[in-house]
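Team,

Forwarding the record for the chain on the shared tracking sheet. I've put the sequence and predicted structure together so nobody has to dig through attachments.
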Amino acid sequence: MIYIIYLLSSVALFGLVTVLYRVLSKGLSRSAKGQQLTRFGIASLLAVLPFAITGQVRWNLNLTLIAVVAAVWMLVFPILDYVANRKKRSEIDNRMDFAFGLYLFGMLSGAYMALSAMFPHWNALIGSALAAVEMPLIVLAAFQVAYYAVYSASIDHDGLKLVLDTDANEVLEFVRSFSRWIVIGMLVGFIVFLMLWFYWNLMDQPPVGSLNWSRKLGLVAYSIGMGWLMFHGTNSPFRRSGLPRLYFEDKEHERECAGYAAACIRRRESLKIESSILHPVGEGSGSPNEVPVRGRTYILVIGESASRDYMGAFTGKADDDGTTPWLSGMARDGKAVLFPYAYSCHFQTVPTLTRALTEMNQYNGKSFVESVSIVDVAKSLGMKVYWFSNQGHIGANDTAVTLIAETADRASWTSQTLNKRSYDGELPLFLEEVDPGVDKLIVFHLIGSHFTYSNRYPASEEYFKPGNDDPDGYVAAYRNSLRYTDGVLDSIYRYASANLNLQWMVYCSDHADLPDRRRSPVFDGFGKLRIPLAVVLSDDYAMKHSDIASALSKNSYRPFSNDLLFDLLCGLWAVRSEVAPLSMNIASPLYCLDASSVKVLLGETTVGDDPNFPSESPK
C-alpha cells in the first residue's frame, strides 16, 4: 500500500510541476512541451524514489525544510524571469530549474534519511550539516528576490557581471547608500533567520527507524548517483538552471578573454597598418635625410558614468552652468570639438569599453580575443603606451578592460585600499613619470561620476547645492562630480601641453547615468547612453592635419556610438588599415553612419529611437 501512495505522490508532483512550468513559460514549441513531459516524469519518480527505498517514513520538520528549499529553487528564478520579461521576450523556457528542484529534493531527502539510518545518535550533527547545505541555496534565492525588489528586474548577465566585477569599496558605497537602520535591520534579520534555520533542523526526531543494510546501501547509492546526475559535467542540470547558468556562461567568457594577452604577439604580427603621421615599427620615413619628430603625446581620457544631459558644454542650460567651465571655454575658443549626439553602445562599463578600445564593435561581429586593441595599434606605430587608472584592479579574474590595460608598456592604478577614497585628481600626477622624449599614448581611466556621486570629489570641491526638487542631493552631487572631472581634464591638458608636446586629447565616457534615481543594472532609458565626446587638438596638429580637423568639425553633429572610439583614434593618427575602415571613422569625410544605422544596446536598437534625438537628422 505504501508504494502505491508513493507512486500517486509522484504522479501528483509531476502534474503540479508540469502546470507550473507551462504557466511560467512562453513561446514553447510542441516538441519542447513533449520533451519536458518525459523529463519531469522521470524527475518526479526520482524525487520520491528514496522514500520507496526506505519504506515507512515519518514526515518531519527537516523534510519540510528540504521541500521548501527545493520549491524555492524551483520557482524563484522562473517566476521573476517570467514577471520581468514576459512582455519583452518571445520565448521563456526555464525547464531545468523545475527539473533540478525535483532532483534536489530527492538527493537531500535520500542523503538525510541515509545518514539518519546509519548514525541514529548523530541527529544534531546531521541536522547542522543539512542546514549548512541548505542555507547557501536559500541565500542565492534571497539575492534574486532582493535584486528584483531593488531594480524591478530579474537577474541577467549584465546584472550578475556588475555584481561579480564590483570591488570591496564599491560594495561598501552601495551599502552606505541605504539608511543605517535599514542595513542594521537586514543584517539582524539575516542572523536571526540563520539561527532559526539551524534550530529548525535540530529540533525534530529522525524520520526513519532501523533499516536493514540493503535499504541503507540503496539510499547511499541513490544519493551518490543523484549527486553525480545533478552536478557532473558542463551540461549538468545544476549548470543549466537559472542563476548557475548565468554564472558559468560568464566564467566561460572570462576564460575566453584570458587568452587575450597571450594573443598580443599574434595580433600585432598580423596587423597591416600605414600612417602619414607615425611610422609603423620597422619602417622608416622613406627619406634618409629626414629627422623624425619625436616626443609627441596623444591622450585618451575615459570617463565614467558622465552624461552630457547634465554638462553645460553640451546643454547650455542655466542649471548646468558651472559643470564644465574648462570644456566650455575650450569649445568657445575653437580648441575643442564637441559631439552632442554621441552615445554609449551599452549602459555598463565592461561591455562598452571591451568594444570601445578594440576593433570589436556592433558592426563587424568580431570576437574580443582576436580583436586588435588601441594599445596594439599604438605600439605598432612605434609609441610607448601608458595606462593610468582610478578604477579598481580586480586581480586574477580581471575584466577585459584590465586585460587591455596590462598590455600597455606601463599600467598603474591609484591606491585601492579598502575604505579609502582615491580621487581622480591624483591621476595627473602620473604625468610626471612619463618619458617626454618618445611618442606615446597615455590612457587615463577615471572613476568620474560613478555612484555614489558625493564620494567622487573632496568636500572642499562642492559647488552645487541640493534644491527643493533634489531632496536626496543626488543631482547636485552628480553635477559636482562632473565639475570635478572637468578640473581633472584641465590639469591633464595644461601639464601635457606645457611639458609633453601634446597633439590631441580625446575625452569620452563609457556610459551615462540617471542621477535622479537609484543606480540600476537594467536599461531604463536613453539617458544612460547619452555620453560626452570631445576632441581637443593642438594648434600644431590642426595646422599640419587640417583635413582631419575639418572632417571632425563637419561630422561633429553626426550621431556616433562609442564602440567606434577605436576607429576615431586610428583616424586621428591617419591610420590606413582594414581594422579601421574610413566609413566608421568620424574623423574622416567618408564617415557614413546616421541615426538609423548607429547602433546601441549591442545592436538591439539605434539612436534614432532616442526620443530626444532630433526628428530631422543633424548634418
